[in-house]
Amino acid sequence: MSHSSPRRLHPRGVRLALGGTVSLFLLALAGCAGGTGGPGQGRYLGLPERASDRAEYIGDLWVGAWVASLAIGVLVWGLMIWAFTAYRRKSKNDVPRQTTYNLPLEIMYTLVPFLIIGVLFYYTLTTQNRVLAADNDQEVTVDVVGQKWSWTFNYIDENGEPVAYDYGTIEQTPTFKLPVDQKVKFNLSSPDVIHSFWVPSFYFKLDVIPGRHNSFELTPTTEGTFAGKCAELCGTYHSAMLFNIEVVSEAEYQAYLDELIERGQSGRAMGGTVGVATPTIPAEEEEGATE
User: How far is CA 97 from CA 5, 123, 286, in A?
Assistant: First the structure.
């Protein structure tokens, strides 16, 4: 029986391996770059452009998790390649030394996963606390109602009284407006089933649960139109629960509220239960059902 000994890697082979890894990483980033304003921003590793003050925390957690995962992956892949190369069998009769028990190694691969989980837990909890921080010093309050199969926005004044509302239907995707650089408090409610309010560019998503009022605060930081959707499978027409958020200047926002009031959309709407009669199924299907 003969024992194999570690064999030194050729410097050229190491350079080629590192060059190939970096090239694959850059190609992956290039593949993520899908234009401007939509999903697939390479520099954020797939996240869209940031459009709220809470996006920084989620973005840093996302990128940091990728960097940590890549570092661990490169270390593991490097050790595997080194072991495959240095200890490969060199002849049919070559049998490596047989080891049945190694206490330091077992302690290491027991403790290291707990260490990784602990670090991820710490940064996740810290980010969650920052994102969900609520000071109740908002400049705009919006009561959001998620109902089958669209959304209703109620704009509330500083005294807690409803000013105006806007809403969508299953056949018309609504566009709601918010002022830029002003803190907004969203109060979420649902009269029917569980929905989930999600604006990807805000890096924020929160469930809308019947009988429970969830809320969160954030400040839109970029003017533009951002797509939103229901992120909870809520029923037959879940895919139709889309909306847009248009972040505008203060003057445009006030003009929008005045326009809603002039159209008779003053007060509060509760999404299909009081005030606004939003259809629960497409019109043509509803007509067929009544025949």
Answer: 10, 42, 75
